[in-house]
Amino acid sequence: MNNFLNKLALGTVQFGLEYGINNFVGKPSLEKSLEMLNFAYDKGIRIFDTAYAYGDAEEILGEFLQRRDLGKQIKIITKLKPNIVAESSGALQDIIATNLEESLKRLKRDYVDGYLFHTPAYIRKDKLVNSLSRLKRQGLVKNIGVSIYEEADAIYAAKLKEVDYIQVPYSIFDQRMDGFGFFQLAKKNGKTVFARSAFLQGLFFMDEDKIPPYLEDVKTLFKELDKIIKKHGLTRQKAALLFSLRNKNIDYTVFGVDNISQLKENIEIAQKNIDCEDCLNELKNKFTDIKRNIIFPSLWKK
After folding, report:
1. Are strands 192-196 and 252-255 parallel, antiparallel or unpaired?
2. Residue 252 is inside which H or E element, if any?
3. What pTM, to 2 d.p., does this model score?
């Protein structure tokens, strides 16, 4: 039986911020967040993704690590604060090292397994890349990389010898990374690829009457999506998660949850040997060129 649980990485932005277009209840309490982290760990998830910019998510993750005394038993990936370095900044190493130090203090760790630029443009600045590499040599970071949005940045990162980890958006509606050789280049150069946004920040689960006017076009897409997945006996949740998990070019799928029910459902989907190849192929062929204003949450009107 194929078990894709080892490809799941739990994202923590929902624990630190009121996050997600379909989130109408706000961020969970500390105890509920800890409950979800504990459940994920007990079920076998060993990679947790966070960031300096995710509110108090790092502190919550650190509390979890301390309460469970997990030490090196799980992998933590975090990200440099966005736009922290001005063009004219001096002492780049000090700025970045101080930011990492603050993250490590929150996480109650003396190193992280992955440290990523949260500002994609930073990957093109040699001085900044060298600063991350220095932290890696010091043992404060095991792997360095970047979280990207654009195809050109993905290719650039895949070519850069210093980069270990690349985090990319990937979903049924956002298949851009399939189309221009990124996955092949990343594999050739030994990069570890993390895919995020399988659920498009919860958009996949929105009731039709709650979809805002600026995403009106999504309603038509959902009708086409539902027609395909119904034929194959899948739900949107199963189809969206499996679309990323079953992609052989993706090493890990980063997913987020608002409550423990969602977490349980996602773990069950990963564990079950669901016959879905025909459905996934049909989805891959159907949704190949979706408008950027739909697949880029940064372009959604707030």
Report:
1. parallel
2. strand 252-255
3. 0.94
